[in-house]
Request: fold
Amino acid sequence: MDLVVTAIVPIVLLLVLGWTLRHRLLTDQGFWSGLEWTSYYVFMPALFLSSITGADLGAVSPVPLIVSLAVPVLVVTGLVVLLRRPLRADGPALTSLVQGSIRFNTYIGLVLAAALNGRDGIATFALAAALMVPLVNVICVSLLTVHGDHGANRPRLWRELATNPLVVSCLAALGLNLLSLSIPGPLGTTVDLLAEPALVCGTLVAGAAVTLRIDRRDVLHIAVTSVLKLALLPIGVGALASTLGISGVMLVSVVIITAIPTPPTTYVLASRMGGDTRLMASLIGAQTCLAMLTLPVIIPLATSF
Reply:
């Protein structure tokens, strides 16, 4: 009940507010595109820099963390590929099913981590994101390169990773942390101020992007990917991480990052690289709504091993 009151309810309220503002008051798409860009390229990197640079990461063992995240993600990806024929998914649909099964909504995850564990939650979630963002991008971009619509433009994989603001900010913050350096005076204060709007603006953007229109043809695909993404993946990560000795705030963060729904940015990638955009939109809306019901159950379950 504490999890629902302190974390889930505020997220739901922000998502609903974002959706309401987008569809009833601030209907200009240009406004939301600008807010999304600013959140993704300015506020979120500032939050990662601010939280990781000053965090105590001495107790975090990198190898168990990498294994506990990478192995379940690769297993789930393999399962989706194996289910391609039973699900009657063509190439573009397969890429959207994989995105819907392994990618995560950073905004919702950060709000959840902050609500449960404060600044330590943000720092450990950001560290997990620094590992997960390159991993899931390599998988998804690689599959889209092979199975996406050949008429679509394809960005280069390594350019996508090298210019990803979340990856760059995490690596920069880790470097400063490991060298025991801090962001100097006024610059540090500026970064802290830019980090403040990240959680609220990001969640509002996520709510604004939710679509409630679901095609009947997508029901089976939504059911399969939602079970994998919202239940089996976080449970697998939690069990493996506990076995490898990860505990406390770090354990909660690795479970959160795998239990949250797929993000609206998956639609953008599907559109750019020839994925199934109709299916992707249905997965985003359905998972965002379903996750508000599954998170209060899955987080305690997956961290209890």
User: Anything to note?
Assistant: The chain has a mean pLDDT of 87. The CA atoms of residues 178 and 199 lie 26 Å apart. The two ends are 20 Å apart (CA to CA). The chain is about 80% helix and 0% strand.
